[in-house]
Amino acid sequence: MIPVKTGMEHDCKRMTILRGLCMAIVLFAWLAAFCDPAHGAPAGPEIELLWKKAFAFGPAGVRAAIEETGAVFVGDDTGVVARLDARTGTEAWRHQSDARVRSAPILWQDFVIFGNGNGRVTALNKQTGEQVWTLETGGEVLGRMRVAGDVVYANSTDGYLYALYAWDGNIIWRYNMQQPSSTRPAAGGGMVICTGDRGRAAGLAPGERRVAWEYISGSSPLTSPLITDTAAVFAADRGALYGLDLAQGTYLWKHMADAPIPFDLASAGDAVYFTTSRGEAVAFDAVAQKEIWRVTLAGERGGAPGGAPAAAQRWLLVPFDNAELYALDLATGETAWSFRETVLAPGAFAGLSVGGDWIAAPNANGYLYLFRIAGGTAPAAVAAAADKTASQSAALLEQAKQAFLAGDYTSAAAIYRNALEADPGNHKAHYNLAVALEHVGGERYATPVVLDEAAEHYARALEIDPQFLPARINLGILYSKLQQNERAAQILREALAVREDKNVRYNLAVVLEKLGQAKQAREQWEAYLKLEDNEDMKNKIREHLKNSAAGAVNGDN
User: Fold this and answer.
1) What is residue 74's predicted lDDT score, i.e. its pLDDT?
2) What percent of the chain lies above the pLDDT cut of 70?
3) CA 258, CA 399: separation in Å to the nearest integer?
4) Which of 240, 305, 362, 397 could form a disulfide with 275 if both were Cys (CB 3.0 to 4.6 A apart)?
5) Of residues 56, 101, 41, 82, the one with CA closest to residue 365
């Protein structure tokens, strides 16, 4: 008997055929993407996608570092580390590590250095891929490492920050963070700053092999730190951006972003850039302590920022969690261009790496995209500011900043003076010159003559911008150093008229105590306590007030 075919059997056969067609279509699209490496939504005349290449298919994809020469170094979840040509994607060599590589490679002289999931830090020869040295830590190396001079700084989930000689991997010292850390250390100004996954930050003086300060934010985790001028800057995931004194760790300022800050920060000049969980990109002036701009980015597919932003030439690159990449004008926040992957399933661009005209953009689906900046017309705000004199001044300011961060304060002051000759109306250059002059002579500061010059430049900065609070605070503190306490108190009171600030309250209280005005000083301390959210600092001030009151009763004051 011939079996009767039911409608259900016909439906099953149709479904089988449809599934096969769908799989063929998906496979064809995948092959098309691989064979046509530049396929994707065009980004406009300023950038071109040269190629994309598949690596590990893991939850975090691939990590990369890129040189201005066009050499790209990648690591992935399968433990592969490879060197590629940025122009073609051609692989020069491949090294197989014994665990996943979650720490993006870093470059030092002829070495490429990376960490892996077994806690190994390994150096390979950049040209050949041959292993030079390896060191084992007690936990995973997840965050990108930092190289400063000939020293590599690496955080491990074993709770330690390691300082290693870059040429042989030998340990110089290690610092117990007392908590795991998956962030990247910062180095500059004679200091190394590290943050932990449970809210601890620390400043280390590597030249003296000592811990200069420790800070507990009360929130976890913290982003990787940045060093801007004399401040250590980092953010807590609850949405607070912190600025601490680089050398002493004292609290300078806090800025609330009004939303969690889930990814690391980027910086360019005096500005710090970050994204929020609400899909916003924010530019914050770390010197003036105010937002420059804030924009809400709505991805074409309704996505949100999916990784840390990165500064590239005149743009802030913001990666999205659905294979979109946006470039915002650093000065205005306006969108300059965007790229959207149109073939592969959406996945977050994360761990951006920039070198010269090259942008390496790893994707969480395991692909590495290589873009090249092709030029194009600069935004009007940037083009207008790019005249010859301003360009010369900007170059000098960057040179001065690097000299300052290297601890060469005399050279920094000299370069700031040259910058002011090119642009005498730059209030931040006056301010930075004054800061550099205060540091000439080391911890004990400079001679009174040099300090007088610093005071002049703080005052000049205020003439140009009377609302520039950092200059007013520093000028008040400087007058106190010069034993001109009445003048210092006046300047600090004027600062309070500009904006309520706990640092002003703190320093005004100190000055008033020097003047013997105990009652007025106590008023400032009490106002300070209302603004301070660090319990350690609050307890210290309460103890100070208690001792002061006891001394007054006993006739000590």
Assistant:
1) 92
2) 82
3) 35
4) 305
5) 56
Angle at 423 between CA 385 and CA 412, to 5 degrees: 115
What is the residue-wise DSSP string for 526-546? HHHHHH---HHHHHHHHHHHH
What is the rounded CA–CA span in Å between residue 557 and residue 554? Answer: 8
How many whole angstroms separate alpha carbon 475 and alpha carbon 494?
11
54-63, 139-148, 193-202, 535-544: the lowest-pLDDT one: 54-63
Residue 107 structure tokens? 């470059």
DSSP letter at 99? S
- Give me 468's structure tokens: 């520039």
- Burial of 32-60, coded b for 16+ CB within 10 Å and e otherwise, reads ebbeebebbeebeebbebbbbbbbbeeeb
- Is pTM beyond 0.85? Reply is no
pLDDT of residue 210: 86
Number of other residues whose CB lies within 10 A of the CB of residue 445? 16
Is the pLDDT at 392 greater than 90? The verdict is no
Six-digit token pair at 509?
A: 């209280």
Q: How far from chain centre, in Å, is Cα 211?
A: 22
Give residue 35's pLDDT band: very low, low, confident or very high (50, 70, 90): very low
Token pair in block for residue 386: 């790019």
User: Is there a contact between 201 and 214 (Cβ–Cβ < 8 Å)?
Assistant: yes
Q: How far apart are CA 323 and CA 344, in angstroms?
A: 9
Quick one: average pLDDT of 149-165? 93
Q: What is the DSSP string of 316-373?
A: EEEEBTTSEEEEEETTT--EEEEEE--SSPP--B-S-EEETTEEEEEBTTSEEEEEEE
Buried/exposed 121-138: b ≥16 CB within 10 Å, e otherwise: bbbbebeebeebbebebe
> How wide is the angle at C-alpha 456 spanned by C-alphas 459 and 272, nearest 5°?
60
